[in-house]
Amino acid sequence: MNWLVAPNAFKGTIEADRAAALIRETILAANSSHRVELCPIADGGDGTCHLLSDILAMERVVLHACGPLGRPMEGFFGFEEISKTAFVDVSTVSGIKWLQDWERDPWTTSSYGTGELILRAVDLGAKEVVLGLGGSATVDLGTGILRALGFLFLDENGREIPVFSPGFLSKIAHIQQTRPWSDLKFTILCDVDNTYFGERGAIPVFGPQKGLKPEDFPAFEKASRNLVRLFGRKANRELEDKPGFGAAGGIALGLSAFFETNLVSGARYFFDKVHMADRIERADRIVTGEGRYDSQSDQGKGSHELLKLAKAAGKEIWLVTSGTDATNSGFDRVLQLPDLDFSAPDLADRAERNLLETIRSSC
User: Which of 22, 124, 309, 355 has CA atoms 20 to 30 A from the CA of 257?
Assistant: First the structure.
């Protein structure tokens, strides 16, 4: 039996590569004659570019950069020398995982540190940046990244507004560009289709997760609309809000004003880069998984995209999840993980035990 083990991360408990290794261990313990190929997956969420860089054995560039509130921390990105492409995750230094609950505040947090990583990649000769949007702490419309790349944001008196200052977005009255950019382009990996504005936009849907209070929605939208108008004026064209621009607090929207940007499905891009179709062809059975499969999973998440490829190839595919919405999604088997107490001190150990026991009982 040839297995392909290709789980997504089990969010908050087990990283994708660790989950893949645990599943492989259990399959081989049940029958050592089986052959197991590992290819952990991601779909534009937290750590997509990191995982892709590891699978493709890219050079890892390490440097210190600013976190979402300006604290220095170690950052990194993958660099593909032949194509002069950098693979950067917003979550690496601008991720919400670096903040305590009481620190979450989109009026203050900034993607500036991600811009520092990108600037370092440009210094190495990068012509393209592949940017994974998942897990961001910000709703700054990419102003932090733009500031690191030489764009100045000024108040009504023409004074520069420091990044990480409270109310940053609401103070912007003018934009200056201090460095010309003509040959840098962005491929932006996304796992949601929300626009920036609207009922399903970044402010009402993702804002509360990042600390934005509902009573602040009108003021934040007003500041955002003013900023998009200023982007358009500086770029000398009208900007259109598009599906996916709501991801990571509008980073793709801001970058699109001044750079060539291509917003793509993170899962499809990932599968193409790792030649997933070839891996599926070699397999008799595929095992994927994610923390909680739900209605959003059918809208471009990694497990569902893998399901479509497997069915097109006529291959059996299993899903491991704690979610209850996968019963009618088309998987040949759904292996149900027990619910976890996320406040438990041994959360990670318990999650791994549950995964091992669930796979063991099914092999």
Answer: 124
Q: Angle at Cα 96 formed by Cα 95 and Cα 100, nearest 5°? A: 135
How many residues are recorded in the chain? 363
Contact (CB, 8 A) for 269 and 215:
no
What per-residue string of b and e applies to 176-191 under the rule 16 or more CB within 10 Å gives b? Answer: eeeeeeeebebbbbbb
Give 314's contacts (C-beta < 8 A, 6+ positions apart).
none
Fold of 2-41+274-360: Rossmann fold (3.40.50)
- For 111, 292, 358, the CA distances from 91, given in Å and listed in that order, are 9, 20, 30
Q: How far is CA 167 from the centre of its chain?
A: 25
User: What are the Cα distances from residue 142, in Å, to 119, 149, 197, 315?
Assistant: 14, 11, 15, 41
pLDDT digits (tens, 9 = 90+) for 239-258: 999 999 999 999 999 999 99
How far, in Å, CA of 178 to CA of 184, rounded?
A: 15
Rounded distance between C-alpha atoms, residue 251 and residue 149, angstroms: 14
Give the start-to-end residue ranges of the domains of the chain.
Answer: 2-41+274-360, 48-267
Tens of pLDDT, residues 153-181: 999 999 999 999 999 999 999 999 998 88
- Give the three-class secondary structure for 102: helix
Instruction: Provide the 3-class DSSP secondary structure of residue 203.
Output: helix
